[in-house]
């Protein structure tokens, strides 16, 4: 329990140091309910495992959000411990998210990344991964579809995960189509004994930032967002982040190509005053009601 409490405080410290502005040792000490001596020890430990803990001229500390820890900084026992702790922490645990964002995990824990936070998702992904490697069909139980607004079972042949494990590209046997299935919208996964028999029809195309696979038509979008729209868009659709660039105070540009305009149109309807449609956009926002 002592080790878990220590790791918990380290997770809190990482989450705190990621947030601007930088924090003083005194502030950190009160936040963690620890002595200043303990805080200095934690800061040294974070540096030893790979974090670049920065201190400014006012002796305040911070961590850049894009810094990573290499797996080589941990031994197998430490990685196994982190794996079990993170898998049981729950998706809503922001502290666990902080440490996962700092890890570049591979080999025996390759199925864990920053979008896998609880045991259920890990189990589903593990089953799907087994099906991919053994060329077996799977039954996706109680899948919640945004397009059809229905919950149904889908018999599919899994092909490949997206790079961040948000979705699975699979061939749906009933529809005879390659589709992307959001992992979080799966009720369960059943590994069948039926071999995959439609490999010649399997195709994998990278989904757009809203998780939709490529269709016959794509749409170029170029939008100007204020801070409110930018924050809401990246919170609801995290994959949009690399395509949003700051141009001025409280003004951001969002430029990308999408495969399905429906999610963006729904988003726009609630934030018309916060979004400006720019020239070159191939989606008709004004007549989308």
Using brief descriptors, characterize the structure shown.
289 residues, alpha+beta, Arc Repressor Mutant, subunit A, SH3 type barrels, 3 domains, 5-stranded antiparallel sheet, 4-stranded antiparallel sheet, HTH_11, WH_DNA-bd_sf, CBASS_pafABC_assoc_protein
Low-confidence stretches: 66-72, 103-117
Task: Name the CATH homologous superfamily of the largest domain.
Answer: Winged helix-like DNA-binding domain superfamily/Winged helix DNA-binding domain
The class by helix and strand makeup works out as: alpha+beta
Overall geometry comes to flat
Q: Secondary-structure element sequence?
A: HEHHEEHHHEEEEEEHEEHE
Question: What profile does the largest beta sheet have?
Answer: 5 strands, antiparallel
Specify the number of helices.
Answer: 8
The rounded Rg comes to 22 Å
The level of helicity is 25-40%
- The third-level CATH topology of the largest domain is Arc Repressor Mutant, subunit A
Mean pLDDT: 79
CATH hierarchy class name of the largest domain: Mainly Alpha
Annotation, overall tally of beta strands: 12
- Which architecture name of the largest domain does CATH use? Orthogonal Bundle
Biggest sheet, strands in spatial order?
A: 7-6-5-4-8
């Amino acid at each position: 329990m002592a080790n878990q409490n220590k790791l918990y405080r380290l997770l809190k410290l990482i989450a705190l140091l990621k947030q601007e502005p930088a924090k003083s040792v005194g502030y950190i000490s009160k936040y963690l309910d620890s002595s200043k001596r303990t805080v200095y020890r934690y800061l040294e430990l974070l540096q030893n495992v790979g974090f670049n803990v920065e201190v400014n001229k006012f002796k305040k500390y911070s961590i850049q959000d894009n810094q990573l820890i290499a797996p080589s900084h941990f031994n197998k026992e430490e990685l196994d411990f982190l794996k079990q702790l993170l898998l049981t922490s729950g998706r809503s645990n922001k502290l666990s998210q902080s440490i996962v964002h700092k890890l570049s995990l591979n080999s025996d824990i390759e199925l864990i990344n920053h979008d896998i936070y609880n045991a259920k998702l890990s189990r589903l992904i593990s089953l799907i991964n087994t099906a991919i490697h053994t060329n077996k069909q799977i039954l996706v139980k109680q899948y919640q579809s945004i397009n059809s607004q229905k919950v149904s079972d889908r018999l599919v042949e899994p092909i490949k995960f997206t790079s961040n494990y948000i979705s699975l590209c699979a061939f749906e046997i009933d529809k005879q189509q390659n589709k992307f299935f959001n992992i979080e919208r799966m009720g369960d996964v059943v590994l069948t004994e039926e071999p995959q028999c439609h490999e010649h029809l399997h195709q994998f195309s990278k989904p757009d930032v809203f998780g939709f696979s490529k269709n016959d038509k794509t749409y170029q979008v170029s939008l100007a967002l204020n801070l409110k729209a930018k924050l809401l868009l990246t919170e609801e659709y995290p994959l949009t982040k690399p395509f949003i660039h700051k141009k001025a105070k409280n003004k951001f540009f969002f430029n990308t190509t999408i495969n399905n305009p429906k999610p963006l149109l729904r988003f726009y309807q609630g934030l018309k005053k916060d979004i400006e449609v720019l020239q070159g956009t191939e989606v008709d926002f004004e007549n989308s009601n």
